[in-house]
Amino acid sequence: MKPWGGIFPGGWLSPRPVVRLSDPSEIARQYRSWQKRVLVSSIIGYATFYFVRKNLSVAMPVLQNSLGIQKSSLGLCLTLHGLLYGVSKFANGFLGDRADARVFMSLGLAGSALLNLLFGLNSVAIILGLIWIANGWFQGMGFPPCARLLTHWFPPKQLATKMSIWNTSHPIGGGLIVILCGYLVVIDWRLCFFIPAVIALGCVIFIWFTLPDTPASVGLPEVEGTQSESSRAESRADFRAFVLRQVFRNKFIWIVSLANFFVYIVRFAVLDWGPTLLTESKHIRITHAGWMVAAFEFCGLGGALLGGWITDRFLGGRAVRACVVYMALAGVSVFLFWKIPFQSELLTTGLLGAAGFFIYGPQCLLAVAAANLATKRAAATAIGLTSIFAYASTVVSGWGLGALVQHYGWDAASRD
After folding, report:
1. What is the pLDDT of residues 244-287, one digit of tens each?
2. What is the model's pTM?
3. Higher pLDDT, 409 or 350
4. Helix 143-153 and helix 24-51: axis angle, to 10°?
5. Does residue 79 belong to any structural domain of this protein?
6. Is 40 a domain residue?
7. How far apart are CA 12 and CA 42, in angstroms?
8. What is the domain-level CATH number for residue 154?
9. Residue 12 within a domain
10. CA–CA separation, 129 vs 73, rounded Å?
11. Which DSSP letter does residue 64 get?
12. Kindly report the CA angle at 392 between 387 and 394, in degrees rounded to 5?
């Protein structure tokens, strides 16, 4: 069976043919095909998670006006959503290291899509808030299965490059949804939730029939360079002991987690508040604001790809070194965006794009660093821990920023 037979025909609709292979050339050919399939399907699947998560940011300016919801309340909702998302990503990371990736990812996306449908059917602020907070749990089921897939299908020496390619799912999903919702919100804000939910449910079917789990699930041996880590059976107690030693007692995992906190403050501030800031502070039309935030995302795609290539090509997989440079340049870009007076949409878009380029390098590479430190046996757990710090940043980027703007306006951060 040929697992790479086009988007839908042939092997793409039969994800789990378990036929044990012995011919080395056939194993190599099958591996190349399945690796392409895993990469493409997981990128599409995770990008679609953004369709039912970042659609709210474009709808927020209209929700404020039509439902009378204050920025501080919206910010609190974003913070609680982010905190539950981080807890979910961590808890599901532990489960995701041992669960079937295809099933896990499908359930998370389906649950998030259904909550989006419920959100669009309601108008009471407190109910909307509770629904969106609950959405954070299902969103946290998206990345752990992807971490499991990438660390099981690609050897450590390729992981930074492949993770950076996979990481394009973030800017692709985040960029496309803000563009789409920028037009939908002009018609009716509820369409920002109905249409993405329908797209997400369609994607659930796609990933259910295209994603495998580990190489063993399709009759292939473990990926090169990781056989010794997974060849032996282990009890739950053995696994817990390994995770405790390799993740929770590893000081470098905690350093990476702290760095992730600061990276995500910038990222979420732009993604969650970008459309509102641009429309209210710089008086840009919502349709144009959607494209400008998309520029932040799409430029981030290039930053992530370049960071992964540099890490594998010149730094021997040491992702943290690239992160330090990227984070410094991201800080400069955000400072210039905030301080330079608004002259034109082109200049504003360029500065947002530069910020996105430099913030998505460490956003991707810090996950690579965590995965390599924890090894593939506990990669999802380690990345889940770093995610708690990432989404704890919503205390600053969500509620903190919302309350600040509610009381002092958008210029508060630049005041002496």
Report:
1. 888 888 888 898 888 889 898 888 888 888 888 888 888 888 88
2. 0.75
3. 350
4. 160
5. yes
6. yes
7. 13
8. 1.20.1250.20
9. no
10. 9
11. H
12. 115
